[in-house]
Amino acid sequence: MEAPTWAAYAVAWLVTITLVLISSHLRRRKLNLPPGPKPWPIIGNFNLLGSHPHRSLHELSKKYGPVMMVRLGSVPALVGSSVEMAKLCLKTHDLVFADRPKTAAGKYVTYNYSNITWSQYGPYWRQARRIFLMELFSAKRLESYEYIRVEELNSFPRGMYEHSLTCKAIPLKDHLSTLSMNVISRMALGKRYLDEGESSIMMPDEFQKMIDEVFLLNGVFNLGDWIPCLKYFDVQGYVTRMKSLAKKLDRFLDHVLDEHNSRREKEKQNWVAKDMVDVLLELAGDPTLEVKLETIGVKALIEDLIAGGTESSTVTLEWAMSELLKQPRIIAKAVEELDSVIGKERWVQEKDIQNLTYIRAIVKETMRLHPVVPMLVPRLAREDVQVKGYDIPKGTIVLVNTFSSQRDPNVYERPEEFWPERFIGMNIDVKGQDFELLPFGSGRRMCPGYSLGLKVIESGLANLLHGFTWKLPNNMRPEDLNMEEIFGLSNPKKIPLTAFIEPRLDYHLFKP
């Protein structure tokens, strides 16, 4: 019998490949994909995403609807832009969409996907989530650290008062960043790591730039993540910045761990965990953990604590005060509530917030109109699934655009207007169960530290309004206040807010 020739083998391979391609093509044709703009070869729909992708996708959703499919390079992405779609993605199909895409930011900035934000769905992530919920942010632990928040919230207006004596406009973001960092630094790291001095590892302005870079680079669309042929070229320069940022973060975190390990070694048998880093180091030595917590894992989780504990409160409070300065009537109404409930002889405390209905409404309205994370951190479909009758293939990126869903005209009257009164009598909270308002996300991937962030935001805003009267600088008209934003993982103001302040409480309340 004559052996098959190479030509015969080649024909057989060609026929096989052709059948596979035809089968794949027919399968794709049978898929009922959501509507969306026609993609270009190689770049997909990147040509339609401007400098603010959440706004670009918001406009596209007006044409294609709240369930939309776009192409990020070669990768399909499901975009949910309504309250209903947020619920479907984050609750109904929460488990299917529980994974994360592997991006350059996750690789370089978070120790190869070792933090809770970018780690893949599986045993390591589930363990990290349990650590955050049961150990670091349990109600008991947060209560034990209340004295820290009280001390820092009392120190916060004193620093602003001292600045006001210079008769210069106050750079609000600087003071908000100091408040947020001091709170989380003392709770997580055991002390104020950014007090200026010879022993300081990093100056406050340098640290703030580092945190800003963390959120910017974790949120940008790095073309190499989505277009394979660009993966090794870094055409936007983002990967170079990520690597540089990683070195700065690692230097800071090494310093933190060295100090904590040194104290542990010195105190030996008398050592007890005093802060969140101590808890993580203690868990790292626990042989019963399902997945061993390595040093890089400890560093990545500390990074989560620091970044998450500073950004949400700083960004939200700056947006809140910007909106209030555009509408003095809202400030007047808030101050009236504060004088009635609190009086003018003391500062607002955490326990008072439940009685400050209008203050809480202002916070919710700020979170609605200016979500800290306008597009929730991307999820990834772990398997094929149907959403509203459409086929969503395994490997699809899932983007929940809260910038759109929180402007849903079917839910909110006058959705583009800053109007806190809409939340008076409306039973909507921010704990992830009401999909009309999702500042901290929802489902398995919801921010585990939301309760701490909310405490600092509500108490901080109350005392900003309780302690001072506010005025825009240089006779600026409210309508001229710049409200542009910067897109990243978070959504801060492009031009930081400055304002003149004067004390409205007795001077003795501003003294140490």
From TrEMBL:
It comes from the Eukaryota. Its cofactor is heme. Gene3D superfamilies: Cytochrome P450. Belongs to the cytochrome P450 family. Heme binds at C447. PROSITE patterns: CYTOCHROME_P450 (PS00086). The chain crosses the membrane at residues 6-26. Coiled coil: none annotated. Pfam families: p450. Keywords: Heme, Iron, Membrane, Metal-binding, Monooxygenase, Oxidoreductase, Transmembrane, Transmembrane helix. GO terms for molecular function: heme binding; iron ion binding; monooxygenase activity; oxidoreductase activity, acting on paired donors, with incorporation or reduction of molecular oxygen. It comes from Carnegiea gigantea. InterPro entries: Cyt_P450, Cyt_P450_CS, Cyt_P450_E_grp-I, Cyt_P450_sf. This is Cytochrome P450. The lineage of its organism: Eukaryota, Viridiplantae, Streptophyta, Embryophyta, Tracheophyta.
